[in-house]
Design brief:
Helices cover about 30% and strands about 20% of the residues. It has 3 domains: about 230 residues, Phosphoenolpyruvate Carboxykinase, domain 1 (3-Layer(aba) Sandwich); about 240 residues, Phosphoenolpyruvate Carboxykinase, domain 3, CATH 3.90.228; about 80 residues, Phosphoenolpyruvate Carboxykinase, domain 2 (Beta Complex), CATH 2.170.8.10. Bound molecules: guanosine-5'-triphosphate, sulfopyruvate (SPV) and manganese (II) ion (MN). The site of sulfopyruvate (SPV) has 9 residues, from helix 9 and helix 10. Pathway: Carbohydrate biosynthesis; gluconeogenesis.
Length: about 625
């Protein structure tokens, strides 16, 4: 377009247009003008991040029947999504770069030209009858050298309100941006409205085969179409802060990881910082907000889903949480399992796909209290006898991080927190012990690369029962997985003796009756304590074929309700079982082709040796 500003003058409110004119960022003006021209909305709104904007946008959705005002909770709202739009759609998530080999074997690749062609046709006129919102947002504290600015264009009020909570939105972002660069993110629910038509209370989205969650990794831009669900639509989160950032991080020598960040303080006041990667719906939010059951040990939350980490000049790795809210799994969250999450979403929060109770509150399976009658996530009457779950298993709450009672006072420090420990893990009902310490960095990288987990509800189409989910990044690493592994080896080389210690955990082993053996949740603090004492050289461990492990007496198990047999079961190494994993791991490695680092092969060879023939 020749004169984007002039074009925008014709379709924006004067005061909002003036902001753009004063800023005079030509990339931004072109991005907005091109999007307006392509998507043909009825109206354009430049977001300022104000409470008034949130309230007005939410009120319009309540009016429309898309949201329910929850009378029992201060400033809280509930949304019911379309049944096809309840989770990330990995099969419709694309990495577009010049060469397919750069996307690697773990991503869906389409050539950028082809994908743009397909998506332009879909975007054409897609915002008819709707408002196009322009959301200026910062991932990371505004102005921090690690932070990145994005602009999300969307036709969804749900996205606007969620982005207000999950990211830093508003005028300050414009001021910080100036003439600088940003990541353009274009989103549409993909449901244009005909003249006089309205959503009429129905969550707007497109059918699955029209959904595209696309990442142009070389141009660094994001195009998402057809879904309103969190990870597909709140583009600052998985799309920017993980997929696009993973490519930047590789190029620039830092790390963008699917990790919670927490601070653990011991009785002497010494602080440890832990970053932990578990696949979606495998316990990050819970661990991040854990209430320690070990006397004198205190946990504070820095972040629950994403970590951006950089090495300082002195060789110390420091992490920030690029988000400002939690988009947490609701089912299973209650005052016993995760009291801090319960408190975090007491007010000013958004709920998606829960049961709305008759007294105007939300309820979900394994939540607090009982629900005798309500309206389920599909909008039908629900009672405990309905025979179906009332909340979708991937029902979520969106809550401001600042509302977490244990939020770390330094959670917004632009310099981040120094990382001492990395944890990997997954959901395995068999084989994988409670905790293992890597023998060295390379062995830890092997543990991360071979992490595997049972299927959860966080992705609609994740397929097989147990899948390899390296570093919990399978759905989020936007370049060749083997290059990503090499990046981990390289980071270890750079960090040298300042590299964090690496551990692997599994909270999810089950007994013959299908019950979790380890009580989990707050009791996981016992395992974290052992890790910190390992860092300090205070706790014992012994060598096994799969790594260093604690004996029962090395763990603080005071007051825990487990029999000796049960503890033995989760602290033992099933050599035959591990041997059976080897061919599966080798087969997985083979899918990486010649990019597979020799150092990775060396690790599986050594493991095989240690396990014995
Ligand atoms: P994403 O937001 O999808 O990335 O998930 P997450 O990794 O943050 O998982 P989250 O903490 O929300 O936990 C997901 C589910 O696992 C919830 O239903 C939790 O109740 C359950 N869970 C978390 N920690 C534990 C644990 O230590 N033991 C057991 N048995 N279940 C757990
Ligand atoms: C996950 O699936 O890992 C989530 C939820 O944290 S989403 O934002 O949808 O990715
Ligand atoms: Mn996640």
């Amino acid at each position: 377009m020749e004169k984007p500003l002039e074009y925008l003058k014709g379709c924006m409110k004067p005061d909002q247009y003036e902001k753009l004119a004063a800023l005079n960022n030509s990339k931004l003006n072109e991005f907005i003008a091109d999007s307006v021209q392509l998507c043909t909305p009825d109206d354009v709104h430049l977001c300022d991040g104000s409470k008034n904007e949130y309230d007005t946008t939410m009120a319009a959705m309540v009016e429309e029947g898309l949201a329910t005002d929850l009378k029992a909770r201060e400033n809280c709202f509930h949304f019911r999504s379309d049944p096809s739009d309840v989770a990330r759609v990995e099969g419709r998530t694309y990495i577009a770069c010049e060469n397919e080999s750069d996307a690697g074997p773990t991503n869906n690749w389409i050539h950028p030209d082809e994908l743009k062609g397909t998506m332009r046709d879909l975007y054409n006129g897609c915002m008819k009858g709707r408002t196009l919102f322009v959301i200026p947002f910062s991932m990371g504290p505004i102005g921090s050298p690690i932070s990145k600015i994005g602009f999300e264009i969307t036709d969804s009020g749900y996205v606007v309100c969620n982005m207000h909570i999950m990211t830093r939105v508003g005028d300050e972002v414009l001021e910080t941006l100036g003439q600088g660069d940003f990541i353009p993110c274009l989103h549409s629910v993909g449901k244009p409205l005909a003249e006089g038509e309205s959503d009429n209370g129905q969550w707007p989205c497109a059918p699955v085969d029209k959904k595209y969650i696309s990442h142009f990794t070389e141009e660094q831009k994001i195009w998402s179409f057809g879904s309103g669900y969190g990870g597909n639509a709140l583009l600052g989160k998985k799309c920017l802060a993980l997929r696009i950032a993973s490519v930047m991080a590789k190029k620039e020598g830092w790390m963008a990881e699917h990790m919670l960040i927490l601070r653990l303080t011991n009785p002497e006041g010494k602080k440890f910082h832990i970053a932990a990667a578990f696949p979606s719906a495998c316990g990050k939010t819970n661990l991040a907000m854990l209430e320690s059951t070990v006397e004198g040990w205190k946990v504070e939350c820095v972040g629950d889903d994403i970590a951006w980490m950089k090495m300082e000049d002195n060789g110390q790795l420091r992490a920030i949480n690029p988000e400002s809210g939690f988009f947490g799994v609701a089912p299973g969250t209650n005052s016993k399992t995760n009291p801090m999450a319960v408190k975090s979403c007491e007010k000013n929060s958004i709920f998606t796909n829960c049961v709305v109770t008759d007294d105007g509150d939300v309820w979900w399976e394994d939540g607090d209290g009982e629900c005798k009658h309500g309206i389920d996530w599909k909008g039908r009457e629900w009672t405990p006898d309905s025979g179906e779950k009332g909340a979708h298993p991937n029902a979520r709450f969106t809550a401001p991080a600042a509302q977490c009672p244990t939020i770390c006072p330094d959670w917004e420090d632009p310099a981040g927190v120094p990382i001492d420990i990395f944890i990997f893990g997954g959901r395995r009902s068999e084989l994988v012990p409670l905790v293992t310490e890597a023998m060295d960095w390379d062995h830890g990288v092997y543990m991360g690369a071979t992490a595997a987990s049972e299927k959860t509800a966080a992705a609609l189409d994740s397929g097989v029962a147990i899948r390899r989910d390296p570093f919990a990044m399978l759905p989020f690493c936007a370049y060749h997985m083997a290059d990503y592994w090499q990046h981990w080896f390289d980071m270890g080389d750079k960090l040298g003796n300042k590299a964090p210690k690496i551990f692997y955990v599994n909270w999810f082993q089950k007994n013959e009756k299908g019950k979790f053996i380890w009580p989990g949740f707050g009791e996981n603090s016992r395992v974290l304590k052992w890790m910190c004492e390992r860092v300090d050289g205070k706790a014992g461990a012994y060598d096994t074929a799969i790594g260093k492990m604690p004996k029962k007496e090395d763990l603080d198990l005071d007051g825990i309700d487990l029999t000796d047999e049960e503890m033995d079961k989760i602290l033992s190494v099933d050599t035959e079982g591990w041997k059976k994993e080897l061919p599966i791991v080798r087969e997985f490695f083979e899918t990486m082709g010649d990019k597979l680092p020799d150092r990775m092969v060396a690790q599986v060879d050594r493991l095989e040796e240690r396990l014995g023939k």
